[in-house]
């Protein structure tokens, strides 16, 4: 199976970036117990005060999909939804590089 990677660009409602970032950081903590999650990094944009990027690497696409069915994840998504003005997921298939095994 191929690993699954994704960049997700979140545009927060005006003035809500920090609140959204806190929820996404909770998701990162939750990923510590997700067996298929290899990387989940929350990044703030230096160029736009409303943008947050999340960098994800999973053992495979099914592990990512399974994580979205987790009831704790569903609850976090519910809390985050009102803070999100838009999201652009970019799904990727990693080929290799430093830190990739």
Automatic annotation (TrEMBL):
List keywords of the entry alphabetically: Monooxygenase, Oxidoreductase
Instruction: Report the PROSITE patterns cross-referenced here.
Output: ABM (PS51725)
User: Has UniProt tagged this entry with the keyword Oxidoreductase?
Assistant: yes
Record Pfam families = ABM
- Which molecular function term from Gene Ontology is one that the record holds? monooxygenase activity
List, for all copies, the residue spans of the domain called ABM: 4-92
Q: Which InterPro entries does this chain map to?
A: ABM_dom, AI-2_Isomerase_LsrG, Dimeric_a/b-barrel
Q: In which domain of life is the source organism classified?
A: Bacteria
Recorded hits in PANTHER family, A to Z, give: ANTIBIOTIC BIOSYNTHESIS MONOOXYGENASE, QUINOL MONOOXYGENASE YGIN-RELATED
Q: What is this protein called?
A: Antibiotic biosynthesis monooxygenase
Q: What is the lineage of its organism?
A: Bacteria, Bacillati, Bacillota, Bacilli, Bacillales
């Amino acid at each position: 199976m191929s690993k699954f990677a994704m960049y997700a660009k979140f545009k927060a409602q005006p003035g809500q970036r920090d609140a959204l970032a806190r929820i996404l950081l909770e998701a990162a903590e939750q990923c510590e117990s997700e067996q298929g999650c290899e990387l989940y990094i929350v990044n703030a944009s230096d160029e736009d005060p409303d943008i947050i990027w999340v960098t994800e690497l999973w053992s495979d696409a099914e592990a990512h999909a399974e994580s979205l069915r987790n009831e704790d994840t569903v609850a976090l998504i519910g809390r985050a939804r009102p803070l999100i003005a838009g999201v652009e997921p970019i799904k990727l298939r990693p080929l290799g590089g430093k830190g990739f095994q």
